[in-house]
Design goal:
Layout lengths: L12 E5 L12 H17 L4 H16 L1 E9 L6 E7 L3 H5 L7 H10 L1 E5 L9 H5 L9 E10 L2 E11 L8 H60 L6 H14 L5 E4 L6 H10 L8 E5 L5 H9 E2 L11 E2 L1 H4 L4 E5 L6 H13 L1 E3 L6 E3 L3 E6 L3 H6 L5 H7 L2 E4 L10 H16 L4 E2 L1 H8 L6 H15 L4 E2 L6 H4 L3 H8 L33 H4 L33 H9 L1 H8 L11 H11 L4 H8 L3 H10 L8
Helix pairs in contact: 1-2, 1-6, 7-8, 11-13, 14-16, 20-24, 22-23, 23-24
């Protein structure tokens, strides 16, 4: 079917099939203007990024060329064939989409579905446009033509392009020319729409693939992290509430580079927690270097931490890197940091604060990036108040504090820990030992002043000495000679506690079931408490054997006591100390003069306080000082 010319177009609507298009000669300058318009449209389409904005620009160019009243582009979505308006000029999209004067989308839908072009010479003569024209302010005397062509890309119909053109005055082009020209523009638009949809589909595919790969990578990382976290924390046996809280804090703290202070009693596993913190930190691939500050004197400690150059001291035959350099980029664990001297504290403060130091015998300043994890079982706050520990160093290392709970505060972990130690013993020695129920009950009732370390020693000792395959309660040494750790429990029990209020045992005696009979705690003799290793029953009696008759308690001293009684009391400082507890950790195994000096040092050389610590009167303490010729320090 041949598209009719403008003269042949009747006042009614005409629908035609798409035919091959020929660019014919137009009026003066018409062909050149058509080519120029196509050129401008092709430039717009070739630089398209935002499709809707691009199509709006195309309509603007057409409006200038065709003297349009209105122009509209409708596209079908990729999922369905329903049309929706995406660009228009002469009418806002909101108004064209809704209301009584909305664009006649049914006409465009028919063009899209049939692929036939529509040309209406006078829209007033077609009832489908009446409401549209009335609300558009068009008079009945106005002649407006409507041209709508399908937008195609190959065999696919993508949408429609329509224009409304005034037909009142003389025209440069005929409706046939407009129909052919709009068909060419629609083909260009169709190619651009198809390209945009292909790019959008590829982009969605890439984004979906990237999201899927990212999800898989996160799952793999989470799996690796879980696998790594298991072995890393696998050495830390015990998942009770107390240890779960500590491990949660370890994971939280590990991601930063803030210094960490580990505090807790001896044997609670401070070094193991420090290693776990390093392994789950971003520095896990770097070195973890540990040093026990209490094991070396200041001179050796300085060389150990900072290193030395050749000839720095006698025997320094070559240069040596210190622990700070060895831990560069990683973690340095300073155990027992509370034991270093004030002189070395000042040297340590500089490297912690500035990250710079000099080796012994060298003037070259070296810089390191080290994360510090310090540990102590001392009461640093009390040491700072007494001037034994620098306050500035305390504030430098005490940024994040993790307090490790003693074993008696997490009794639910005793059984898994004991089984873990026994399994390790079996692996190392090729045995297949196991615990009976009464053995687990006995262990669970113990206070373990030495914490996890004491539990490990206890399990190793009984596994070594047992003769059968099953360890029962009767196989533990405390059933034979008593629980010797009770001595330690009494020594660290007192007003100041073992580490200054960080969970020292209160009222610890011995294992709840460790007795020679009837589950009753076994009393220890004064000689055992004083570390003599002998019982009042005689030299051959075993340790912990209860005496035949309890020794009589000495009457308390009175202020009117004679010098002789004072001498006796002063000579009994060790016995009083061992029986009642030193209250401040003054060991009953020290010589008598040293115990007295230690008590005076702890009390700030106040005789009344020392007397309370030793269980004596101030007069007895004063006489003992004179007897041992101990000068009084004035602080």
């Amino acid at each position: 079917m041949v598209v009719p010319t403008a003269a042949a177009v009747s006042s009614s609507s005409t629908a035609t099939h798409a035919q091959p298009i020929r660019m014919e000669a137009e009026g003066p300058g018409g062909g050149a203007r058509s080519l120029l318009t196509l050129y401008e449209i092709s430039k717009i389409l070739s630089g398209a990024l935002n499709l809707e904005a691009t199509l709006h620009d195309v309509l603007n160019v057409l409006g200038a060329y065709l003297d349009m009243r209105r122009g509209t582009i409708a596209l079908a979505s990729a999922e369905s064939s329903d049309l929706s308006l995406v660009a228009s000029i002469g009418l806002s999209l909101e108004r064209a989409r809704e209301g009584r004067g909305a664009y006649p989308l049914d006409v465009a839908t028919r063009v899209h579905r049939t692929g036939m072009r529509v040309l209406v010479g006078n829209m007033w003569e077609d009832s489908r446009f009446t409401a549209y024209l009335e609300h558009g302010g068009v008079l009945e005397s106005d002649k407006v033509a409507f041209v709508c062509v399908p937008i195609r890309a190959g065999e696919s119909a993508l949408g429609t392009l329509s224009v409304e053109r005034w037909r009142d005055g003389p025209l440069d082009t005929t409706l046939d020319d407009d129909l052919r020209f709009l068909t060419m523009v629609a083909n260009l638009v169709g190619q651009t729409v198809r390209l945009h949809r292909l790019v959008a589909a590829d982009r969605r595919t890439l984004l979906a693939d990237a999201a899927r790969l990212e999800k898989r990578a996160r799952a793999e990382r989470a799996g690796r992290s879980q696998q790594e976290r298991g072995p890393r924390f696998g050495e830390i046996v015990g998942r009770g509430p107390a240890m779960v809280a500590v491990l949660d804090k370890v994971r939280q703290v590990a991601r930063t580079r803030a210094p960490v202070m580990l505090r807790g009693e001896s044997g609670t596993g401070k070094e193991m927690i420090a290693r776990a913190l390093h392994k789950v930190s971003p520095r896990a691939d770097k070195a973890f270097v540990g040093v026990n500050c209490a094991a070396l004197p200041d001179t050796l400690l300085e060389s150990e931490l900072f290193g030395h150059d050749k000839g720095a001291f006698t025997g320094a035959s070559g240069e040596r890197k210190g622990r700070f350099e060895a831990a560069d980029g990683g973690t340095l664990f300073l155990d027992e940091i509370g034991e270093i001297s004030p002189t070395f504290q000042a040297k340590l403060l500089r490297v912690l604060q500035e990250g710079q130091f000099e080796r012994l015998g060298s003037s070259k300043t070296r810089s390191v990036d080290v994360r510090i994890i310090a540990a102590t079982n001392r009461n640093l706050e009390e040491a700072v108040s007494r001037g034994e520990f620098r306050a500035d160093l305390y504030y430098r290392i005490n940024v994040v504090t993790l307090v490790l709970p003693p074993l008696r505060e997490r009794p639910e972990d005793i059984e898994p820990l004991a089984r873990h130690f026994l399994e390790r013993f079996n692996e190392e020695n090729g045995d297949s030992l196991g615990f009976s129920d009464d053995a687990i009950a006995l262990l669970s009732a113990c206070a373990f002043p030495g914490n996890v370390r004491e539990l490990e020693n206890c399990v190793t000792r009984v596994a070594t000495m047992v003769r059968g395959e099953v360890i029962s309660a009767q196989d533990f040494s405390c059933r034979e000679v008593g629980c010797l750790s009770a001595t330690l429990g009494r020594e660290i029990d007192g007003p100041t506690q073992a580490i200054g209020g960080l969970g020292a045992p209160t009222g610890v005696s011995n294992c709840g079931s460790c007795a020679s009979g009837g589950g009753r705690p076994m009393p220890l003799s004064d000689d055992v408490m004083m570390g003599a290793g002998r019982s009042p029953n005689g030299a051959g009696a075993p340790l912990g054997t209860p005496p035949a008759t309890p020794p009589p308690m000495a009457p308390p001293a009175t202020p009117s006591a004679s010098p002789a009684s004072d001498d006796a009391a002063a000579g009994g400082v060790g016995a009083m100390d061992a029986r009642h507890g030193d209250g401040g950790g003054v060991s009953g195994r020290l010589p008598e003069r040293d115990r007295l000096v230690a008590a005076m040092e702890k009390s700030g050389w106040v005789q009344a306080k020392a007397a309370r610590l030793l269980g004596l009167t101030p007069r007895q303490v004063g006489y003992a000082l004179r007897r041992h010729d101990i000068p009084i320090k004035r602080l």
